[in-house]
Amino acid sequence: MRYRSTASSQVSWRPIGPDVEEVSAQYADPLAALARAEIPAILLREAYDPADCRFLIERFVERGLIRDPLVDDPDDQRTRIDIGTSLGNKGGDKEDFLANAAETRALFSTLFAGMQDPVETLYERLQALAPDKKVQTAREPDGRQYGPAIFRVHYDSHTYKPHIDHVSLREKRFDYEVSRFTHQFAGILCVQNADARGPGVQSIVHRCLWTEELQPQIAEQRFAEYAEVQGIENFRVELEPGDLYFFNTRCIHEVPAVSGDDPRVVLAVFIGYAEDDGEIYVWS
Length: 284
Ligand SMILES: O=C(O)CCC(=O)C(=O)O
Ligand SMILES: [Fe+2]
What we know:
Number of strands: 12
Oligomer: single chain
Mean pLDDT: 93
Helix content: 25-40%
Strand content: 25-35%
CATH class: Mainly Beta
CATH architecture: Sandwich
Number of domains: 1
Order of helices and strands: HHEHEHHHEEEEEHHEEEEE
Low-confidence stretches: 1-9
Bound molecules: 2-oxoglutaric acid, fe (ii) ion
Structural class: alpha+beta
């Protein structure tokens, strides 16, 4: 069945899934629906093997990329550890950013030995959702590539307050090739929940596309109140390890404080998309 998708629809704002076949059967162009925020997310269950999720965490510990959960290091109190290159953090210095991205690609070329490459899984699924476009790692006109994806490891109490992500609208970056895309999405693969006893709330996506007028509500941390008064719908994303979701990062979204003994670990990408662009760029 094809969901009705206008704001006046009786059908509430629900993600589509649980796999590419079903999504493609429901929507001729699922990414266009995401761009218009007709749906909160494309949610693909078991895109990646949960056993490989566990191997991956062990690999991170073996390689010293994250803290050993059995060793308490009083000098290391970080609530977030990144494995990969972030344009948001490093984009102020393009040379440094691109050099760092090359190091990440070198690291990732051996990191997944003996297991399915989760970055490949994520790109493959995205490509399957957009058969008419070419999905590839974002690159500058001279061919130099951005970081392909990033692991984010969040420890107890780490929170993302309501925000959006958008290279030009929010970060005001115009000197990178990815600025050309009208729409920005995120792809998030759950590697580990903070509490192994059940699916954790990963993020809350609000049915509200950012505009300049909304910025004060966000900056002054009044969005929750605003959403309540306006009766803005939201969708709470709950994932098991191996589940993957894509959402429009211009929809105001947040991640409640991580709570649990284990870190919440995700593999994340940003995605540049435009209806009239034959390429889809992926970066972190
Ligand atoms: O960790 C997440 O699920 C989402 C984090 C976030 O805000 C983003 O990737 O844009
Ligand atoms: Fe975000």
